[in-house]
Amino acid sequence: MTGEARPKGGTDRARFLEILSLLRKHRAAKGLTPVKLRALLEDLGPTYMKLGQVMAMRSDLLPAAYCQELKKLHSEAAPMPVEEVYGVIARSLDPPLGTLFPRFDPVPLGAASIAQVHLAELADGTPVVVKVQRPGIHETMRQDVALIRRALGLARVVGGTGDVVDFGMVLDEIWAAAQEEMDFRIEAGHMETFARNNRDVAYVDVPRVFRGLSTGNVLVMEHIRGIPVTDTQALRAEGYDLEEIGAKLAQNYLKQVVEDGFFHADPHPGNLRIRDGRIVWIDFGMMGHLSPRNRQLLDQGVRAMARKDPGALKDVLLAMGALGEGTDQNALYGEIDDLLTKYGTVDLASIDMGSVLEDFLHLARRQHIVLPGGVSMLGRGMATLEGVLSVVSPGISLLDIAAGRMAGRLPHREDWERQLLQDAAGLAAAGHKALGLPVLLSDLLKMGAKGQGRMHLELTPSKALDRTAYWLVGRLTAGMVASAMLVGSGILCTTDLTPRWLGVPALGLAGFGLSILLAAGLLLGIWRER
After folding, report:
1. Whole-structure pTM value
2. What pLDDT does residue 60 have?
3. Containing domain of residue 52, as a range?
């Protein structure tokens, strides 16, 4: 698949049959294991690999094994012919190409499934990078998402990890994220917001956006000539202190998360450059957002982890997420305690904060707690940044720096006032309830003395338990019917009923046949659901 728009009708049908063929090839009906899902996306083409890359960042939607496997995907694609590139620019911008860009390199710097990038020069000699979207890619991806949903045929597919994955829901979430990434105006807005947030940080820089030359399909930005952050040899040759780079990189990322609530969700080495003593962040297609409330809860979570307080961590998880069907709060407490025990014996500086966050994300998923998408992207982003830091300055730990930030940060006056108001309100409510305790205790003792004390216990089964009960009752009923038919047919065969076939009453033979078919269907269903 090239990424170009496809005509509807026969081509869509051919693509649908191709998808079905690939699903059969990978035996998707028997379950999509992580390896099978990655191989399927690779066979489906570049746009599906792009969707897979976005999936890899959503550990709140997919189990850990899937996210790890999908990280191996690459979305490189064959470059567009330069005539198509010129056509997109001509349709998006008014002045002729030669007027806008006196110099335009026809050979792309890179080509991916959604867009490709070219070097160019403005009329005043400013070197720029021009990001050009493939024509028709939005419609192509929309059709492909609809086709793969139809081809899967069932909304829930059991993975080889033992988890049940709702791939229909996953597709909806990923498609929503991909649509944002295909609107370059959103990316331009991300760059400007990031630049404003970091305007007072002397060691951080962002490429300048040329808004007048940028549209939904074309993005023109400053060309960054810098040293890749993981090219340690070149950085040393230029006299840079790698420990300082690592420390400032970690400090800035934590600022993005804790103070701004707006952070780079894909800080891999290709998106970080060092130029003129500054860390330059590039590629703002994937950004994470955290509300003030979620930032406060994350802060409480880190503090609870430092105190090794599983109860407080449990409260943070429950406050941040939405409880799903099957959440077991007692088991949740035990799992959190196990994680704290796991990390409690490790030196703070050696703990990978990204791994800690991802462990808690997977714990939340196992307990059916739906966390905000920004929290999941943060876990993936921190894990990626920890990988960068391990190359640039292995002695730097995000968690160590985060703990240092919290230890050195004094609460603001507003924080104190808010906390005092909350505590005062809680104390007043507790006092009001305490006034009624003597009366309630007296009534309880009187009821006990008269033998009128009762305990009301209500058990509310979950939907999962209901489904299991219905399944068991259905199978039991089918087995009893098959047995009754078998016995009844045997009795009929001893009578003189007519008509007869092969010397046996035909009704008895028919009953035997039906009972055997029913029993065979029952056994086949049980075998398939193992």
Report:
1. 0.69
2. 62
3. 10-77+140-181
